[in-house]
Amino acid sequence: MAQPKILLTRRWPQAVEDRLSRDYDVTLNTDDTPMTAEQIGAALGDYDAVCPTVSDSLPAALFDSKMRTRILGNYGVGVNHIDLDAARAAGLTVTNTPGCLTDCTADLALTLMLMLARRAGEGERELRRGDWSGWRPTHLIGTKLSGKTLGIVGMGRIGIATARRAQGGFGMKVVYYNRSEVDPAALKGLEAERLDTIDDVMAAADVASLHIPGGGANAKTIGAAQFEKLGASGMLINTARGDVVDQDALIAALEAGTIAGAGLDVYDGEPSVPEALTRMENVVLLPHLGSATLETREAMGHMVADNLDAFFAGREVPNPAG
Fold first, then answer.
1. DSSP, residue by residue, 112-169
2. Backbone angles phi, psi at 153, to 5 degrees
3. From CA 175, how far away is CA 215, in angstroms rounded?
4. Where are the alpha helices (H) located in the chain, listed in sequence order?
5. How confident is the model at residue 65 (pLDDT cuts 50, 70, 90)?
6. Tell me: the pLDDT tens digits for 298-308?
7. Is 288 left (phi over 0), alpha (psi -120 to 50) or beta?
8. Is residue 11 flagged as an active site residue?
9. Separation CA 174–CA 192 (nearest Å)
10. Which of 19, 157, 241, 302 is catalytic?
11. Would you list the DSSP string of 211-275?
12. To 5 degrees, how large is the angle CA 90–CA 94–CA 97?
């Protein structure tokens, strides 16, 4: 019996590519060149499964009745790059990789907080330029995280993991907004106060950390009004999706001193990053590294493979998206 024909749109960790190459008729993107939406659309007619990443674009126009593809094995938690309604209407199963990247993304949120609070990016750039003239009492004075208030917007797995790290490691007070009630068992041992609105969280927070899905109604959730609430000493951290922030409003708030700074791992329209952000010293910019550890990236790939295995064996997929 012929093996299902599968396409990976980007390079994946070697251990996962080896597993898929053993079990499937797999096409690898060996030069790791990003595929266009048109190329992915063509692949939907040639492969039984297409495995996109969060950097791919799969709009509604790609999905029609002529597709050979029956499952999209998404490499990543977020699926806002896929028109889910159109994909499902065309009969596709869509899976994702929740849970396995929680710890690493929470770690990175704390990395951004520390870098921003302690002005670490500024200091490293100064040193590398050869401009450091030695220790002095007023040089690059930042602020402590200890004792500050962390506001979490989106108290899911990653939001909770971030809050636990901040409270356990730095004694931060935690307030949060979540659209639905959070299971008390998930919050056990964490002192966290739920507030009624995002604006309430922004007003209470010294540091606001975003952990909501991108796309749809969440687009530009955080804008000028929220930056005003966060205030001139407030810091914004975004490891969620770039489009949940009004990027133009963020730039304006940073330039005007409406907020003190921002630590960003994601961007609206990435990999494009506005030049205005790259020029600012009060911004920490990372290239979407939230899940970028070998352990996590391998676990993500194996989760996709598990979803494919279940689907082609006629079983229920363990991680349906949405």
1. HHHHHHTTHHHHHHHHHTT------TTTT-----TTPEEEEES-SHHHHHHHHHHHHH
2. -105, 105
3. 24
4. 14-23, 37-43, 84-89, 102-117, 120-128, 157-170, 198-204, 224-230, 247-256, 275-279, 294-312
5. confident
6. 999 999 999 99
7. left
8. no
9. 5
10. 241
11. ----SGGGTT-B-HHHHHHH-TT-EEEE-S-GGGB-HHHHHHHHHHTSSSEEEES--TTTT---H
12. 170
Tens-place pLDDT, residues 85-143: 999 999 999 999 999 999 999 999 999 999 999 999 999 999 999 999 999 999 999 99
Mean pLDDT of 147-160: 98
pLDDT, tens digit (0-9, with 9 covering 90-100), for 282-291: 999 999 999 9
302 is catalytic: no
Q: CA end-to-end span of the chain, whole Å?
A: 32
- Out of 17, 126, 228, 270, the active site residue is 270
Question: In terms of DSSP bridges, do strands 149-153 and 173-177 run parallel, antiparallel, or are they unpaired?
Answer: parallel
Contact 207, 235 (CB under 8 A): yes
Amino acid letter, residue 180: S
Annotated catalytic residue 270: yes
Exposure string for 91-112, b = 16+ CB within 10 A, e = fewer: ebbbbbbbebbbbbbbbbbbbb
Tokens 């799969």 found at: 58
* Tokens standing for residue 114: 């520390």
Inter-residue contact 57 to 78 (CB < 8 Å): no
Angle at 299 between CA 217 and CA 210, to 5 degrees: 30
Place of tokens 């100064």: 126
| Type of residue numbered 307 | N
- What is the distance between the alpha carbons of residues 285 and 90, in angstroms, rounded to a whole number? 38
Check whether the bond before 274 is cis (ω within 30° of 0): no
Neighbours of 6 (CB within 10 A): 25
Q: Residue 281 and residue 173: Cα distance in Å, rounded?
A: 27
Locus of tokens 């899940």? 291
Give 53's DSSP letter.
B
Which amino acid is it at 279? R
| Residue whose token pair is 């630590």 | 263
Q: Which of 19, 81, 211, 288 is catalytic?
A: 288
